[in-house]
Amino acid sequence: xxxxxxxxxxxxxxxxxxxxxxxxxxxxxxxQLKLWKEVKxxxxxxxxxxxxxxFIADNASGSLxxxxxxxxxxxxxRKPRGVRLTPTSRYIRDKLFPK
Length: 99
Known about the structure:
By secondary structure, this protein is α+β, with helices and mostly antiparallel strands. 22% of the residues lie in helices and 23% in strands.
């Protein structure tokens, strides 16, 4: 998840994701990206508008070395259960990994 990432100029969502990954986790190699779903809904708890494009990578490898310490403070591989998540991240987890 890259909550602070924003598109620049005329770049696509996929280009934005690749750029953000390269800036924030430069040693992470990500394979082909496929758009899984676009979420345009309202958060049931806060009422805030959600507008996200969710991509699935067919492969990811390399170390999670942080490139810009001001962007993120840590990066770790985790299993999808038992972690505090944002509303969008919970939505994704529940759709991809139902109980």
